[in-house]
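Ticket #4471: structure output looks truncated?

Reporter: J.K.
Steps to reproduce: submitted the chain below (220 residues) through the standard prediction queue, then opened the result file.
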Amino acid sequence: MNWKDIVEVLRANKLRYTILIGIAVILTSILIFMAFTGKKAQPDSLSNLTSLSSTRTIASSNLTETSAKSDKITVDLKGAVKSPGVYKVSSEARVTDLVQAAGGLTTEADQKAINLAAKLTDGQVVYVASKGENAPAAATAASASDTSSSDASITTDKVNINTADVTQLQTLSGIGAKKAQDIIDYRTQNGLFKSVTDLTKVSGFGEKTLERLKDSITVD
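Returned output as attached by the reporter:
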């Protein structure tokens, strides 16, 4: 093969070589571009992961804080305690916990007039009566919506001795479980009380007891 033949062959294959070279250039450009964008995207991905982790941490913190707040209630303590005032206590707290937080009862406190085992509610007013004081209950609810509660320490009205149960009757000053049951037994056997003075017909209830309770009870 002489030089003329070689030149002819090269000319014939020129287009093929040109196409191959072009494809090689394109492939090389694609690989370079992918390598460059891949390195750049990696820090962004890490940044996104870090941001997501931070968001989850903040959300978890907010949830914990909200949960902690929901476990607290506010109660107003008044009467014969060493440090009356408004207290924030656990939603599971009882009257005894509130009294302890206030430093305990004073020497004038009528311990028979308060149910230390009663559970507290948010916004409640707890009143500790003094000895000889006509107080219908140890604790009084702050809102009318709580008046239907059967809690021994919650009432905003006089106790109806015709309808009250044992627990409600025990909110009366000096009335324990036995006397409360005596009232219920009497009205069951003899009918409803026609007036508060009929309470003296119950065994163990004299004029002195009636005098102490008359402002706290009703038959209506």
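Triage note (M.O.): checked the attachment and the full token line is present. Confidence is low (pLDDT under 50) at residues 136-156.
Status: closed, working as intended.
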